[in-house]
Amino acid sequence: MSTAATSPARLIGFALVYFVLAAVPIATTRFDGGIAHIWIASALLTAQLMRSDTRDWGRIAIACALSGMVATSLFGLGPAASLPLAMANIADTLIGAAILRRLGKREDYLASLGNVALFVGAAAIMGPLISALIAAAVAAWVTGMPYWALCRDWFAAHMLGMLVFAPPFSMFLRQEFGSWARALTGWRRVEAAGLFAAMAGVTALAFAQDHIPLLFLPMLPLLIITFRLERVGAAIGVMILVTIGGALSALGHGPVHYFAATPSQRSVFLEFYFAISVLTVLPAAAELRQRKEIFRRLLESERRFKLITESASDIVLELDPQGVVSYVSPSVTEITGFTPEQLIGRRPQELLSGPDARTFLGAHRSVHKQPGVTATIEYRSRIADGSIRWFEAKTRGIVDEQGVVIGSVSAIRDISDRKTMEMHLAHAATTDGLTGLGNRRAFDALLDRRLTDCAAGLGGGCIAIFDIDFFKRVNDQHGHAAGDRVLESFAAIALGAVRPDDFVARLGGEEFGLILPGVTMAQAEQICDRLRHTVARSPMRAAPGATISITVSAGLAALGPHLTRDAVMRAADKALYAAKTGGRDRLAIAA
User: Fold this and answer.
1) What's the DSSP call for residue 554?
2) Model pTM?
3) Element housing 429 (H / E)
4) How far is 236 from 216, CA to CA, in rounded Å?
5) Cβ neighbours of residue 437 under 8 Å, at least 6 residues apart?
6) CA 170, 173, 176: angle at the middle one, nearest 5?
C-alpha cells in the first residue's frame, strides 16, 4: 500500500475487507467450538504488507488488529480472547513479511523457484508456527480444549490459507490480472476461456459426487493452464478449483465425504488438497516465468550479437569443445575471402602450419583450463587466395550455467599492416642507415647469442673490430660526402670478403665489427687479412674523376664459454689499439 493507499478512507476500506475475510471463516468453520479451520485474512494482509512501505506497516497492522478483535468478539471466542488472538494474527503476518523484506523480496516474491521456497518457509511455515504457540494457549484458556490440538488446527488453517490465497491476493493488488487480460489477444483469449471452462467442468465433475475419489482429475487442466497461461492463469485456475470445490464440499458433496470424518478433519483435508495444488503449480509457474525472462534476454542478446558481428570489422569465431568451428561472422569473407560456410565444421589449424598451429591450439586449450582469462595470440594464417597474413586473436572460454566449458569465442583482426610496420621499424632500429649493415645494437644482440651458444657448448668463433686508418684526413681533404662513400665502399667490400654466415656491422663512425661463428683463430685471421688486403688494393671514388686509397687496421679476439660481451670487446679493442700503434694497415690478435 503506497502512501496514498494509507489515507484514512483507504485504510478503513482495507480494514473492512480484512474484517469480512476474518469474520466469515470464524462464523462458519469453528466446527468443534474451537478456532476457525479456514483463515484467509492473513494472506490478504501479507500481500498488502509486501507492497507497502515499512513506515506504513504500523497503521495497517493496527487497523487490521482492530478488525480482527471485532470479528473475534462477535463471532468467535469473545472479547476476552479478541486482543491476544488479534496480536497472534498480526504477528503471524509481520514475521513472514519481515523475513521476506529482509531477504530483499518485496512485491514479486513469487518470481522464481527460490523466491517461492522463501515464501513458503517464511510466510507459510515460520509465521503460522510461532503464532500458533501463542493463539493455542489463549484458545485453550477460553475453551478448555487440548492445547496441542488447538495448536495444530491454528497452524494448519494459517499455513494452508497463506499458501492458497496469498499469491492471488498479491497479483490482484498489483493489478496483475488486468494487465494479463489486456495482453491476451485473439486466439489466446479463446484458448484461455476454453481452458478455464475445462477447469471448471472437471472440478465440478470431481466434486459433484462422493462415491469415487476423483481429486486427481483437476490437476490435469490446472497444469495445462499453468504451462499455457503462466502464473496469472495458474492463480485463476486455483481460484476456480477453490471456489467450486469449496462450495460443493460445503454443500455435502465431493470426495472429502468419501470417508468418515469430523467436519474439522474434512476441512483440514480439503485445505491440504488445495495447498498441495498450489505447491504443484506455483513453483512450475515461477520456473516458467524465469525461463521466459531468460529466453527473452537471450533473444535480445542474440539480436545484439548478430548486429555487432555483422557490422564489425573483426572476425568473431566460435569453436566447440573439440576445436571445430561452429560459428564465424560474415566479416570473414571481406578479410580472408572465405565464406562462413567454407569454414564451419573445419578446424582453424587446417589453415595454419608449424608453430602458428601450435600457438592457436595452445590458446584454445588454455581458455578451456581458465575460461575467465583472455588468451591473446598473434599468428600467421593462409587466406583464400593462398597468401599468408598476420592475425591477432583474443580468446575466452564459453561456459554453461554449471560453469562447464562448452567452447570458446575469439575476436580476430588482421594485423598484417601493423606487422609489416613493426618489421620495418625493427629493421631500422638494427640497421645502419648509411651502409645498410647491422648497427651496434644488432651486433651486441648477436654477440650475446653467440656467447650463450659458447657457454652451452654449441661452438665457438671470433670477433674482429676494423677501423679505417686516417679517416679524419679523408673527411678534411675530400669532404664528408666522400667520407660517406668510403664507408659505403668498405661495407660492400666487407660483405664480399666474409662467409655467408658471418655478420658485418657498423659500430659507429669509421669502426666496423665482424662476428665469425665457428672459426678457429687461424681461419679468422685468414678472413680478416683477406678483407684488409682487398681494401688496400681497391681505390675508392671520392668525387667524379678522383679516387682515394685507404687501409684498415683490425683487432681479433676469440669467443669463449666463460667470457662476457664486454670482456670480448675489450680484448678486440686492445688488439685494434696494438695494430694502430704498430703502424696501421695490420691485424693484431688479442692475447
Assistant:
1) E
2) 0.54
3) helix 416-429
4) 18
5) 431, 491, 494, 495, 504, 505, 506, 512
6) 80
